[in-house]
Amino acid sequence: xxxxxxxxxxxxxxxxxxxxxxxxxxxxxxxxxxxxxxxxxxxxxxxxxxxxxxxxxxxxxxxxxxxxxxxxxxxxxxxxxxxxxxxxxxxxxxxxxxxxxxxxxxxxxxxxxxxxxxxxxxxxxxxxxxxxxxxxxxxxxxxxxxxxxxxxxxxxxxxxxxxxxxxxxxxxxxxxxxxxxxxxxxxxxxxxxxxxxxxxxxxxxxxxxxxxxxxxxxxxxxxxxxxxxxxxxxxxxxxxxxxxxxxxxxxxxxxxxxxxxxxxxxxxxxxxxxxxxxxxxxxxxxxxxxxxxxxxxxxxxxxxxxxxxxxxxxxxxxxxxxxxxxxxxxxxxxxxxxxxxxxxxxxxxxx
Length: 351
Description:
- By secondary structure, the chain is an alpha+beta fold.
- The chain is built from 9 helices and 21 strands.
- Strand 10 and strand 11 (213-218) form a beta hairpin.
- The protein is globular, with a radius of gyration of 23 Å.
């Protein structure tokens, strides 16, 4: 039970050539610059943009295959989609919006409303069933959109920047809600996002799309540690530490401590950018850095004019230093080093 897709499509200046394999219960995140073709991938899978070549097979059912003359209409596909801007119908209540997908698939009206109520209860909005979209907060509207997509029991769930339109506090809440639902979803899921925190916390694998091609795939940890292009390094080549904040200190799931600034208490994810890390042979003296961890160099990767240094320790890190600094330090795998970073350089997001 899975998605098996080879997508070939020319749309304006975009020449899309992408192959995807997503297993049941797996979440694949698509990352890439604007215009790379990420949303076009979702549109082809949903049936909103027919292929020029290739095929889309979901759980053994062919949905699109131009060579064989097969094209299943969007409302006939076992696919649910959540858009960045919700796209709820203004003239319908929350209940009617959730029931819409079921009704479009010719489900009996009473059954559709019953299932819609069940899904509103699952996303914590049973008391907002009669509310119109304009009466809902951004987070509530996005949960209604998620309920509408899941109410049809899709075998493929498509999420197009589902958290991008939300403010920071609402985004964290909806992210937790989304992660909970994805944990129980047994179909395949493809997520488009620009946020490395979303990719790290929600996805099992990442596929990086540039100019209509997949240039790198792997687990979030693999892609973060070994980006294959400057764009990937700049966007997601970051260090992510999961833990819980208390009294200005994040304690990781492995017991390591990270001093942070202006972070609310509770489960959180700290983002440490490789260029914020200072690498030295010994513990630095007279530094304003609140964090300094000893470690061992495990890998060295050159990326253009900079060098990425992987460091194993209580807080595993990837630092990015200049060629000049690398030459001065004479670093090699196995060397003992110290990694320092200021608390103010660490971004913290609740999860």
